[in-house]
Amino acid sequence: MKRDISFSARSRRREVLMGLLFILPWILGLLIFTLYPVVASFILSFTRTGEGSAIKWVGLDNYITAFREPDFFRAILNTLILSLIGIPVAQIMSLVAALLLNVKMKFQGVFRTIFFLPSVVPAVATGLLWKWILNPRLGPINTFLDSIGLAGPGWLADPAWVKPSLIIMSFWGIGGTMVIYLAGLQNIPTEYYEAAKLDGAGSWACLKYITMPMLRPVTLFNTIMAIITSFQSFSNIIIMLDMDGGMKKAGLVYGLYIYTNAFRDFKMGYSSALAWILLAFTFVSVMLTYKFFNRSGDQEVS
Amino acid sequence: MTKVKTRRLVLTYMFAIFMSILFLFPFLWMTTTSFKTADQVYDNPMQIIPNPFDFSPYQRLFTENNFGQYLWNTVYVTVLTLIGVILSSSVVAFGFSYFRFPKKELLFKILLGTMMLPAQVTMIPQYILFDKLGWIGSFKPLIIPTFFGGTWVIFLLRQFFDTIPREYSEAAKIDGANEWTIFTKIYLPLAKAPISTSVLFVFMWTWTDFMNPLIYLTDDKMYTLSIALQRISSGARSTDWPLMMAGSLVMALPIVILFFSAQKTFINGASMSGLKG
């Protein structure tokens, strides 16, 4: 009996050790590539690299500097405009596409493939392709507009049209969001619609009182993911415009502002502070979105 | 009633076809441009389908622009990343699923939490660290961290391992199998489906990655396709549209082919957790 207990205690300890051994790669990775960098980034954000790469403690100076930089506000404003217009419109388009593909019809699979396909195209290829499609002189859009007697805009070459161009381009890649909506739609029990139809509800009423409320968690998830992505994105700007965000910096987004400060100007302290401001902004925006979704939910119930 | 229904169905088809044309046109435009000469690009009126087809953009890509090297670099980084992520993540996922140890669920929550952390917060100290190690300008910063597990893959595989009945391993244990044997002989062979999903997505993310190669690859000979394309497009050849479209096509083609050969896995994976994890 006694031997039995010590045996099970030993096997228990062995299990703990084996478990830790198996997850050891991840623990090491967490410490080296995540935890240490997070702490270092926070500390760095209070420092400045002086002459001869000596690191100097500057307190809150980096954060204060940020709020005095015109480019900082420009980057935040550009990111906010792109997000506030681009995200809702893209969500609505993804939802419309998902509703369309949820209708029982022939070639449904073919349509689904076509709608989804653009979202697997590499970002660099997408960026170059759209830069070419939006080419003011030789691109197909302006050529078409020209043929029906309209003068097309300068798109990426015109500061006023940079943001619309980026938003229009993003519609091409709604496939990823669309399939999440589609999965959400397929999870709604068909009985709900049947019962509503019996009560004489039309398609609009079904959409408003069944589909939309049932999809709220999916919509919330998609919106939050879109916010996180949008606040960090910068590669499409580098590819389609340049490191400055194009003419008059109309495409200078926050992700690009961090990137150029860190890896072009090597202001490691300042850009670390920018990264923490990004984290705070993301957190606040996600919270606000969450609140917004819950409040609009309560109203519908009452 | 049926008339209304038919009309509605016809409208739905028309809308779906219209949208399909909008989604497909950019592919057509990319492909046909890549077979044009510099002069054909300026054709007025515009010829969408070039006549004759010109293969010289692809020639320029692989001779003057060293695309073979960039293709090989991308394959190299992608294959090593795949080996690193799949090997390490499956081991870690098994650890989280099979064993009981204190604070396991807390650690797993931390793992999920790190998925939410913006790359911007960690990338600067990571760069400084790799710089101190002398790794900047080599493939090491892109490859070595992948051997410490990929969060998304660990999550996916653990979810799957949790569904494997305990009886399988208990039976093997009686026959004298140790944990490593249970992992390699029972769990891994059963996990073919989630592992292929992981391979697909990790392949796609690595093949198309722009940020990490942009930060860490400084030597022209080591560029991956995404950096090479960006450099070509911002350099002296920025108006050679056939060349750039040919390059974009070469870069996109492997993924498009992969997508067509494993469509279900792709769409299910994407609808499960969002395309970018």
Question: What would your notes on this structure say?
Answer:
The complex is a heterodimer of chains A (302) and B (277). Chain A is mainly alpha-helical and 302 residues long. Chain A has 13 helices and two strands; from the N terminus they run αββαααααααααααα. In chain B, helix 4 packs across helix 8. Chain B has 15 helices and no strands. The mean pLDDT of chain B is 92. With 277 residues, chain B is an all-alpha fold. Chain B has one domain: MetI-like (MetI-like fold), CATH 1.10.3720.
Strand content of chain B: under 5%
CATH topology of the largest domain in chain A: MetI-like fold
Tell me the Rg of chain B in angstroms.
24 Å
Low-confidence stretches of chain A: none
| Structure classification of chain B | mainly alpha
Number of domains of chain B: 1
CATH superfamily of chain B: MetI-like
Q: Can you describe this structure in just a few lines?
A:
The complex is a heterodimer of chains A (302) and B (277). Chain A is 75% helix and 2% strand. With 302 residues, chain A is mainly alpha-helical.
Topology (elements, then pairings):
The complex is a heterodimer of chains A (302) and B (277).
Chain A (H helix, E strand, L loop, with lengths): L1 H43 L2 E3 L5 E3 L3 H6 L3 H33 L5 H9 L6 H11 L6 H8 L11 H13 L3 H12 L3 H9 L4 H30 L2 H6 L13 H11 L3 H34 L1
Antiparallel strand pairs in A: 1-2
Helix pairs in contact in A: 3-7, 3-8, 3-10, 3-12, 8-10, 10-13, 12-13
Chain B lengths: L1 H32 L4 H4 L14 H8 L3 H32 L5 H11 L4 H14 L7 H4 L7 H11 L4 H9 L4 H12 L1 H17 L2 H6 L8 H10 L6 H21 L1 H11 L4
Helix pairs in contact in B: 3-14, 4-8, 4-11, 8-11, 13-14
